[in-house]
């Protein structure tokens, strides 16, 4: 493979202005498929969740999933879109084995939602408005597995296996208007937009929007125009960019690549490109000899969708607090900076911290545990924070035990480790491991006396005014009590017994 | 016992209910008739002997247990091979589905079974219902029982021929541009295209989704009404099916009358291309309607002249998309899969081998009509014509209760005469197509034999959408008056084979 020529990001931006268009597909979390009653649950045996309709058998007919329409309207409303009073599905005709009818039931020139926007926050707190062209309903395709080739792609494969469990799962495709004016922050805006959209979808409860599970997939369209030019350049379409980080990297790579092409006097080809996670590059997809003509026409098997204004208003009234509003509120309640809030957001910890606070913890402690010890563990294990085997209620209990003085931070970490190891609730771990701060003043006093007696030289230094040396004696006491003492109290006792003011 | 195959469906149901005949006897009589004549007629593609007898036995058992029987319980029926039948082959008259056994029943089939109608088998048809003669069947043509060298109409020629040759008292057809009415007309039988959405399309293999409509075929107006009632009604599996009560068709058929009704004669349905004997019988029918107390009004529907052109853009467009699924990958025929070819190549070879010339012609027409750059000029304009036709009907129905016309411009033509001339073939549906485009209800019933060739002529009655009962009210009155005039039903003049 030839190495793609790139120019530095700074040089690219000095000469060119990037224009982006983002197309995001969201798999809805409806119980049944868009046009039939088959289950959408993941993990079933291949083709177990199919029926005449989603297999496209002769004679079968689609019926629209009302919950799918409702979800689409909710997404449209949350994106500040107008909701169509009357719209139709359309058939997008093309042959592909993973599409049982050889047409996809989608929407064409009559989307259910259109003309909206989403405000996204980028680092530094700047708010960037991304205009939304449309959000429309469609169905997912089946899944092909190409067997026998080296790459897993169809090229070189001996045969392909088809699983139609995914065929007919409802999708909402959300398309932005051209994003202009982001300049050097274009890749960052792209990432922030997808992140914000994901939060929004989750908040609406219409999908879990897990990108790693393919529940949310992004296509990044990008073109460059010379600085100061009005006319858009030719765009590339990078398909299936499936993580937030990849969205940013793909945009960045395309800026650098296209700048190199244009700077060398070449022209950018309008083409589909693949993104590669391992090095952040994009490569051209299959070159089509001629532009695909999808021969769209209104789907005659479905009646038009005409959501009543009453229904739309009812859905609007029932929308949950939207993520950015909620984040601003929580940021104030928790008393943290915008930067800290972004870290919490990026860690996927907002809901976990909120739930922990709801279970009785104070905001600072809840945030400390989730963003500290637990974030570290999640990172080590390579899992999402929410996937750790510990609940907000359990974390709240640990916070309570610390607050009442039964645990110190060190012991609390051991309790959390125990919970994560499957040893049960915090109280069970405390009991089983015998973790308890020694708060018996008599026992503690004896340990302090012993430490002073065993470290006479240090004790003298402290008596002589070197208060900082007390740390060594605290350490000795903590060692003797196997960490179960309250370190602050130990220090107080030491200074008291040596007649020094702390 | 009288020949059970000569009785009407309602007559047979009465005999079965009273115990004069068992459902098994009735079924066996019809199976014997199939054995005797279908080699000559070729109405059936598949006879489900076992299935039919099992259904008949179940009806007899029900009666023996004293259970109430429905109005068509035990009556045999011939089913157009376009409806899916669980465990029974469904070919749609095409090689591309040869050997396919559907895993599910069409809603219409479920309803027939629930009504204890005995399904004898699947009838021949033009491939994917595209044609007006049944000559486009991949499995050979069907003969018209009036003259086996002539066509029985199409696409539902197998169903009409089964009725006219007394192999079944009831049949099911589908009508996209006239495929129920035109075969009824040329075989001297009764056929009804219900209002679009009146009968579920779930399990009916699609040709042109916005035009296709299943409906009843019979030898009498009352039998058609009984069958209509059994298959009609809302189906949650078909979102285009109408969620409203079925019009009272049986009651209308039992109370035929045209007294005081206004009947419209459409000026545009006459002239060049209409056979003299067809126009003669049609004009006599109009005279009869007057005699029976109807007020006859001549009116004009100017857009009807463009109906055929609009139809041959809309139907092929939808068909090009509906038939895309036949790719050789999941069911039916697969050609050229020798391990070295790509899925794309296998699909192309399968479609080349599996589809007949008329189907290919329409797929190509439709693919072209939907192409970017041509869509507005073709599909878009055709939809506008469709709207104009609906308006013409709407205006007409402000003046009259029903419209009448010849069902088809000519009597049955000889097999082979029009196969190389698609335009001549398409003209057979000139009078029937407007109702499909507008989605209203229409019936064809016999109005005599053309003097020049002694072949049946059909009278078409058209009613507004959801007023299907008017067809039966008028049809029953006309039928009774003709039988009075002739002294017997028309089919008694058919050759005995």
UniProtKB/TrEMBL annotation, chain A:
<dbReference type="InterPro" id="IPR006075">
    <property type="entry name" value="Asn/Gln-tRNA_Trfase_suB/E_cat"/>
</dbReference>
<dbReference type="InterPro" id="IPR018027">
    <property type="entry name" value="Asn/Gln_amidotransferase"/>
</dbReference>
<dbReference type="GO" id="GO:0050567">
    <property type="term" value="F:glutaminyl-tRNA synthase (glutamine-hydrolyzing) activity"/>
</dbReference>
<comment type="similarity">
    <text>Belongs to the GatB/GatE family. GatB subfamily.</text>
</comment>
<dbReference type="InterPro" id="IPR023168">
    <property type="entry name" value="GatB_Yqey_C_2"/>
</dbReference>
<feature type="domain" description="Asn/Gln amidotransferase">
    <location>
        <begin position="351"/>
        <end position="498"/>
    </location>
</feature>
<keyword id="KW-0547">Nucleotide-binding</keyword>
<comment type="subunit">
    <text>Heterotrimer of A, B and C subunits.</text>
</comment>
<keyword id="KW-0808">Transferase</keyword>
<keyword id="KW-0436">Ligase</keyword>
<dbReference type="InterPro" id="IPR017958">
    <property type="entry name" value="Gln-tRNA_amidoTrfase_suB_CS"/>
</dbReference>
<keyword id="KW-0648">Protein biosynthesis</keyword>
<dbReference type="InterPro" id="IPR004413">
    <property type="entry name" value="GatB"/>
</dbReference>
<dbReference type="GO" id="GO:0050566">
    <property type="term" value="F:asparaginyl-tRNA synthase (glutamine-hydrolyzing) activity"/>
</dbReference>
<comment type="function">
    <text>Allows the formation of correctly charged Asn-tRNA(Asn) or Gln-tRNA(Gln) through the transamidation of misacylated Asp-tRNA(Asn) or Glu-tRNA(Gln) in organisms which lack either or both of asparaginyl-tRNA or glutaminyl-tRNA synthetases. The reaction takes place in the presence of glutamine and ATP through an activated phospho-Asp-tRNA(Asn) or phospho-Glu-tRNA(Gln).</text>
</comment>
<dbReference type="InterPro" id="IPR014746">
    <property type="entry name" value="Gln_synth/guanido_kin_cat_dom"/>
</dbReference>
<dbReference type="GO" id="GO:0006412">
    <property type="term" value="P:translation"/>
</dbReference>
<keyword id="KW-0067">ATP-binding</keyword>
<dbReference type="InterPro" id="IPR017959">
    <property type="entry name" value="Asn/Gln-tRNA_amidoTrfase_suB/E"/>
</dbReference>
<protein>
    <recommendedName>
        <fullName>Aspartyl/glutamyl-tRNA(Asn/Gln) amidotransferase subunit B</fullName>
        <ecNumber>6.3.5.-</ecNumber>
    </recommendedName>
</protein>
<dbReference type="GO" id="GO:0016740">
    <property type="term" value="F:transferase activity"/>
</dbReference>
<dbReference type="GO" id="GO:0070681">
    <property type="term" value="P:glutaminyl-tRNAGln biosynthesis via transamidation"/>
</dbReference>
From TrEMBL, chain B:
<dbReference type="InterPro" id="IPR000120">
    <property type="entry name" value="Amidase"/>
</dbReference>
<feature type="active site" description="Acyl-ester intermediate">
    <location>
        <position position="179"/>
    </location>
</feature>
<keyword id="KW-0547">Nucleotide-binding</keyword>
<dbReference type="InterPro" id="IPR004412">
    <property type="entry name" value="GatA"/>
</dbReference>
<dbReference type="GO" id="GO:0016740">
    <property type="term" value="F:transferase activity"/>
</dbReference>
<comment type="similarity">
    <text>Belongs to the amidase family. GatA subfamily.</text>
</comment>
<feature type="active site" description="Charge relay system">
    <location>
        <position position="155"/>
    </location>
</feature>
<dbReference type="Pfam" id="PF01425">
    <property type="entry name" value="Amidase"/>
</dbReference>
<protein>
    <recommendedName>
        <fullName>Glutamyl-tRNA(Gln) amidotransferase subunit A</fullName>
        <ecNumber>6.3.5.7</ecNumber>
    </recommendedName>
</protein>
<dbReference type="InterPro" id="IPR023631">
    <property type="entry name" value="Amidase_dom"/>
</dbReference>
<dbReference type="InterPro" id="IPR036928">
    <property type="entry name" value="AS_sf"/>
</dbReference>
<comment type="subunit">
    <text>Heterotrimer of A, B and C subunits.</text>
</comment>
<keyword id="KW-0808">Transferase</keyword>
<comment type="function">
    <text>Allows the formation of correctly charged Gln-tRNA(Gln) through the transamidation of misacylated Glu-tRNA(Gln) in organisms which lack glutaminyl-tRNA synthetase. The reaction takes place in the presence of glutamine and ATP through an activated gamma-phospho-Glu-tRNA(Gln).</text>
</comment>
<keyword id="KW-0067">ATP-binding</keyword>
<keyword id="KW-0648">Protein biosynthesis</keyword>
<dbReference type="InterPro" id="IPR020556">
    <property type="entry name" value="Amidase_CS"/>
</dbReference>
<dbReference type="GO" id="GO:0030956">
    <property type="term" value="C:glutamyl-tRNA(Gln) amidotransferase complex"/>
</dbReference>
<dbReference type="GO" id="GO:0005524">
    <property type="term" value="F:ATP binding"/>
</dbReference>
<dbReference type="GO" id="GO:0006412">
    <property type="term" value="P:translation"/>
</dbReference>
<feature type="active site" description="Charge relay system">
    <location>
        <position position="80"/>
    </location>
</feature>
<dbReference type="GO" id="GO:0050567">
    <property type="term" value="F:glutaminyl-tRNA synthase (glutamine-hydrolyzing) activity"/>
</dbReference>
């Amino acid at each position: 493979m030839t190495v793609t020529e790139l120019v530095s990001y700074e040089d690219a931006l000095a000469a060119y202005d990037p224009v982006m268009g983002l197309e995001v597909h969201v798999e809805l979390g409806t119980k049944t498929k868009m046009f039939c009653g088959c289950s959408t649950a993941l993990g079933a045996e291949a083709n177990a969740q199919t029926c005449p309709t989603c297999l496209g058998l002769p004679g079968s007919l689609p019926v629209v999933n009302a919950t799918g329409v409702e979800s689409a309207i909710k997404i449209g409303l949350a994106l500040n879109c107008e909701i169509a009073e009357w719209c139709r599905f359309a058939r997008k005709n093309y042959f592909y084995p993973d599409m049982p009818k050889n047409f996809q039931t989608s929407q064409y020139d009559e989307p259910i939602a259109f003309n909206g926007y989403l405000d996204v926050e980028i680092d530094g707190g700047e708010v960037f408005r991304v205009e939304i062209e449309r959000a429309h309903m469609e169905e997912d395709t089946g899944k092909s597995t190409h067997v026998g080739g080296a790459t897993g792609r169809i090229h070189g494969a001996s045969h392909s296996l088809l699983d139609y469990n995914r065929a007919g799962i409802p999708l909402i495709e959300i398309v932005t208007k051209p994003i202009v004016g982001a300049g050097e922050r274009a890749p960052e805006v792209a990432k922030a937009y997808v992140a914000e959209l994901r939060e929004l979808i989750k908040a609406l409860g219409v999908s879990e929007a897990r990108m790693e599970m393919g529940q949310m997939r992004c296509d990044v369209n990008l073109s460059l125009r010379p600085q100061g030019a009005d006319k858009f350049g030719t765009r590339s379409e990078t398909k299936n960019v499936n993580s937030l980080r990849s969205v940013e990297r793909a945009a960045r790579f395309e800026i650098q690549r296209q700048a190199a092409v244009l700077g060398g006097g070449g022209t950018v080809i309008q083409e589909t490109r693949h993104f590669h996670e391992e090095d952040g590059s994009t490569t051209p997809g299959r070159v089509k000899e001629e532009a695909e003509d999808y021969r769209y026409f209104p789907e005659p098997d479905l009646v038009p969708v005409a959501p009543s204004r009453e229904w739309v208003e009812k859905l609007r009234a029932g929308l949950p607090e939207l993520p950015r509003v909620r984040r601003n509120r929580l940021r104030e309640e928790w008393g943290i900076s915008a930067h800290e809030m972004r870290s919490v957001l990026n860690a996927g910890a907002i809901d976990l911290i909120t739930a922990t606070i709801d279970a009785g913890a104070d905001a600072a402690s809840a945030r400390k545990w989730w963003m500290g010890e637990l974030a570290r563990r999640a990172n080590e294990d390579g899992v999402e924070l929410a996937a750790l085997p510990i609940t907000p209620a359990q974390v709240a209990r640990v916070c309570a035990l610390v607050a009442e003085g039964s645990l110190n931070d060190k012991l609390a970490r051991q309790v959390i480790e125990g919970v994560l190891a499957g040893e049960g609730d915090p109280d069970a771990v405390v009991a089983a491991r015998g973790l308890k701060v020694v708060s018996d003043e008599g026992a503690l006093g004896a340990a302090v006396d012993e430490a002073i007696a065993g470290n006479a030289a240090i004790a003298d230094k402290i008596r002589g005014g070197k208060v900082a040396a007390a740390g060594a004696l605290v350490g000795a006491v903590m060692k003797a009590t196997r960490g179960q003492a309250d370190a602050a109290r130990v220090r107080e006792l030491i200074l008291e017994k040596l007649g020094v003011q702390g | 016992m009288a020949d059970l195959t000569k009785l009407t469906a309602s007559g047979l149901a009465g005999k079965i209910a009273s115990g004069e005949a068992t459902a098994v006897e009735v079924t066996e009589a019809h199976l014997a008739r199939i054995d005797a004549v279908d080699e000559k007629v070729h109405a059936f593609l598949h006879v489900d002997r076992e299935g039919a007898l099992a259904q008949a036995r179940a009806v007899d058992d029900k009666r023996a247990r004293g259970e109430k029987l429905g109005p068509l319980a035990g009556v045999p029926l011939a089913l157009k091979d376009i409806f899916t039948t669980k465990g029974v082959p469904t070919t749609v008259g095409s090689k591309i589905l040869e050997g396919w056994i559907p895993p599910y029943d069409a809603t219409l089939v479920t309803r027939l079974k629930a009504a204890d109608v005995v399904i004898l088998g699947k009838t021949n048809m033009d491939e994917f219902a595209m044609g007006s003669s049944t000559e486009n069947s991949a499995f050979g043509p069907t003969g018209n029982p009036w003259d086996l060298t002539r066509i029985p109409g199409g696409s539902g020629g197998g169903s009409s021929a089964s009725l006219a040759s007394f192999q079944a008292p009831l049949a099911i057809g589908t009508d996209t541009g006239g495929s129920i009415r035109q075969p009824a007309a040329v075989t001297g039988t009764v056929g009804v295209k219900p209002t679009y959405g009146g009968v579920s399309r779930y399990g009916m293999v699609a040709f042109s989704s916005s035009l296709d409509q299943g409906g009843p075929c019979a030898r009498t107006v009352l039998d058609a009404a009984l069958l209509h009632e059994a298959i009609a009604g809302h189906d949650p599996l078909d979102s285009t099916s109408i969620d409203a009560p079925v019009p009272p068709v049986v009651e209308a058929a039992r109370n035929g009358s045209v007294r005081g009704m206004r009947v419209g004669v459409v000026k545009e349905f006459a002239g060049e291309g209409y056979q003299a004997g067809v126009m003669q019988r049609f004009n006599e029918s109009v005279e009869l309607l007057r005699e029976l107390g109807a007020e006859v009004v001549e009116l004009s529907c100017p857009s009807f002249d463009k109906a055929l052109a609009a139809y041959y853009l809309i139907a092929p467009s939808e068909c090009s998309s509906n038939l895309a699924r036949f790719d050789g990958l999941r069911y039916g025929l697969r050609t050229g899969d020798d391990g070295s070819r790509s899925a794309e190549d296998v699909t192309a070879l399968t479609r080349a081998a599996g589809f007949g010339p008329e189907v290919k012609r329409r797929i190509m027409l439709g693919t072209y009509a939907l192409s970017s750059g041509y869509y507005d000029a073709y599909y878009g304009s055709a939809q506008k014509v469709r709207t104009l036709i609906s308006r013409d009907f709407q205006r007409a129905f402000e003046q009259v209760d029903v419209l009448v016309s010849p069902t088809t411009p000519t009597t049955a033509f000889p097999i082979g005469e029009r196969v190389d001339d698609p335009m001549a073939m398409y003209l057979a549906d000139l009078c029937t197509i407007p109702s499909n485009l507008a989605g209203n209800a229409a019936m064809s019933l016999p109005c005599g034999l053309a003097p020049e060739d002694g072949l049946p002529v059909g009278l078409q009655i058209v009613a507004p959408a959801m007023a299907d009962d008017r067809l039966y009210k008028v049809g029953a009155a006309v039928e009774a008056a003709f039988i009075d005039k002739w002294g017997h039903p028309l089919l008694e003049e058919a050759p005995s084979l």
